[in-house]
Amino acid sequence: MARHLRRWQGLRPATAAVTAAALGFAGVVLSASSAAAAPPIAQVPQVSLAYTDVRTPATSYPQPTGDLPLGSWLDGQGATHESRVYASFDLAGFAAKDTAKHVVTASFLFGESSAASYVQRSVEVWQTATPTAPVTWRRAPAEKQLLGTVVTTAAGPASYLHLDLTSAAAAAAASGRHTLSVELRLPDADEKNTALGRRLNPGMTLYASSNTPPGAPTELFSQAYACAAKAPYPYLPSLTPPLTAMLHDTDPGDQYLTGHYAVWPVEHPEQRTEFTQDSMLRDYGRSANVPTGLLADGGTYAWQVRGGDGTDLSAWSKPCTFHVDTTLPSAAPVVTSANYPVDRTTPGGVPGQFTLGANGVPDVAGYQFSWSQDFPVLGWSTDPNGVPQRTDPYTLPGFVRASRLGGPVKLTLTPPDQGPQTLYVRSLDRAFNPSPATSYRFFVPNTMPAVTGLPAAPRLGTPFTLHLAPNAGLPSVDSYTVQLNNDTPQTVTAAPDGTASVTLTLAYAGGNTITVRSHSPNGWTSSSNRLFAFVDTAPGVTSDIYPEDTGTTVNAGGVGVTGVFSFAPKVPNVVSYTYSFDFGNETTVAAGTDGTAQASWAPDASGQHTLSVYATDRDGKTYDTYYYSFDVN
């Protein structure tokens, strides 16, 4: 799970408070920008196109491919005709059943191919009833409303004429039939004037855009607390806390939305202030910090949010409420213990009984304690969808909740080790603001177990057995915890007399640490007995003529006198040794079945010489190099 840590703004000094009376922001909108683009424009499918002629009142001229006559015109024989044009468009794709999807814009485009005269001229566009039969002059659909008049003064064909039909298209899209039907005609005063007749291009087009409003926001969090619609409300340690929401939208193009937030004092809803957070990825949790100056220490506030896609807004979310507390507890807690008095040495062997008190601070909700001066920083993570994931700190080690505000708590703790020990404690209020820390110091005697059986020179991969016995100062021991280096500790059950044994195998060359602690039935954990075991993997080297110089010069042999150097393994499965004299060229010699080998060498000069050698096992792993110094006569 992809996760990231966010720090609580608590557990640090409070910032300056702002009084509610000084705000004066009732009804203010702090910003109103939008990160979303306009809805895409698409061509609306045309389902019919026809013109009519008064001279042939029962004839329909559907789907013409040539120019469309409009108004009065003369044919080749000089006969007068009068025509109107009808078109229908299907807006079903611009609205959806059971959703709020709706038309946002609609533009009707058409153009002239010719006109009888290029004077100022007009075309009326009417919305009609939806045709139920082929359109003729005699059976034309009824006119419902004049949608607009297009006027042109072009001294030639007006190839681009435009009329905004947004209102009519939106109403049609929302209707059950989704059809917008229009009629193009000349005004009554012009329709019978052949000097104002014209021809229209057959490419009449309706372009529209639609939008689905964002869905209601979900995953509401005040800082890292899930939305609290009723008491108890969380306490937040910040004057600018993050408010998280997940916004939703079903339109493919609306990937990023704007969060429109509102916050107000619970007792003064008229002081509602709105602010926005742009670029909120839909279906993903994103937070917006309350702007500076809106919250005051000690106040109780509600907030809600709605999503905006640049065209529409969702419904408001339910209100969420929180308290603000940026004031730290004024006094450090009091720590007392009957069996571990401050600055005293105790017998040990019994867990400590400690009482933590609020020292008169009334809103202390709990305490944090540690055997070191460093207290962990509280925070929260987010899941892969950006939703805050908060863990109640009082379920974590080192925290304890008070049974009532300002009340004490009792702790049973075992000191971590022997010698001087200090318990550090601080109190926490409901917002997890910390008090100053109290340090409680006392002394613990040595109670570590006795451990025997560690070889003086342990071998890599060779098991050995440790024998464990309880400290004489402990009344009883029921088990031991044994940890090798940083491996997972293992628990060993003790015999009735408190003794136990454990077999270990060292898997790492060099230094190894073995830590042993005993456990008593009363809950006591002893101080640690730490043993150091060094594993030497360099081979052993001996020589019949040239003994090793261990600090006292021993001249032996001589120039040209051959010596035999024997190699013995300290690790299992050795198959060869690689050596060199005086850091010259390396030579590899195979090991015998017992893992030993020999090399012969005659020095060419007197004085001190150095043999370096390392072993290789059957898996190809090499081990530490041994440097063998010797002196030659």
TrEMBL record:
Residues spanning the signal sequence: 1-37
Record keywords: Signal
Tree of life domain: Bacteria
Protein name as annotated: DNRLRE domain-containing protein
